[in-house]
Design a protein that fits this description.
Elements (H helix, E strand, L loop, with lengths): L1 H31 L6 H8 L4 H7 L2 H24 L5 H18 L1 H11 L6 H24 L10 H22 L3 H18 L10 H5 L1
Helix pairs in contact: 1-2, 1-3, 1-4, 4-5, 4-6, 4-7, 5-9, 7-8
Length: 217
């Protein structure tokens, strides 16, 4: 029994170490960028021996992908909680703005954008990064489909295409905002989108067709 507990303890210690490495990798990506992120800089940020990076993950790129997976898991939980309560287009825009601000403040999307830039040097990262983005696109598609269900837009709005465009636009806006350091344009954009959403939301659903016999009743 004692040995079993010891093994469990060692596994727990290993998990804690891996988590510490991942968190240090996230902090390093946000502060130093992809080019400045190495086993040495990650270890310095987390205050541990750099050999642990290779022991637990094998390579720096693998720990960076683990960092992206970790961020994606956290954000998906938050997205689900925030967007799950949304029932109208204006509410969806408001939720998207809240999510954008939090992602920008915490540097979550910067982790992704830095890895995307790193893929130009390490092309093998490209497919792995795309696999991490796909759940975000699917989630966006499901949210759009749910909000426009029962409205005149349900049959004409290509939810998959719109979802892809929104995620691409979201990442692009985040990058430009980081470069400029000014959110005024973002405020203006979300205000414009909110006006359109309220305009579309004011259009009532198409009433169901009735049979000729029902019309005569």
């Amino acid at each position: 029994m004692a040995k079993s507990g010891g093994r469990a303890g060692r596994r727990s210690d290993g998990d804690a170490t891996r988590e510490k490495i991942v968190e240090a990798a996230i902090d390093t990506l946000c502060s130093e960028g992809f080019a400045g992120t190495s086993a040495r800089s990650i270890a310095a940020k987390g205050e541990f021996n750099q050999a642990l990076v290779f022991y637990h993950f094998g390579s720096v790129n693998d720990v960076l992908m683990a960092a992206l997976t970790h961020v994606g898991r956290i954000r998906m939980t938050d997205y689900t909680a925030t967007v799950g309560r949304v029932e109208t287009l204006p509410d969806l825009v408001s939720a998207a703005r809240s999510i954008f601000d939090e992602d920008l403040d915490r540097g979550y999307v910067k982790v992704l954008s830095e890895l995307i830039s790193g893929a130009s040097t390490y092309p093998e990262l490209g497919p792995r990064i795309l696999d991490e983005i796909k759940p975000w696109i699917s989630f966006t598609e499901q949210s759009i489909s749910r909000v426009i269900s029962g409205t005149p837009f349900e049959s004409v709005v290509p939810a998959p295409d719109i979802a892809f465009g929104i995620v691409a636009l979201y990442l692009g806006i985040e990058l430009l905002t980081q470069l400029s350091g000014d959110r005024a344009s973002v405020d203006s954009l979300f205000a414009a989108v909110d006006r359109f959403a309220r305009l579309f939301g004011s259009i009532s659903p198409v009433p169901p067709r009735t049979s000729k016999g029902e019309d005569q009743k």
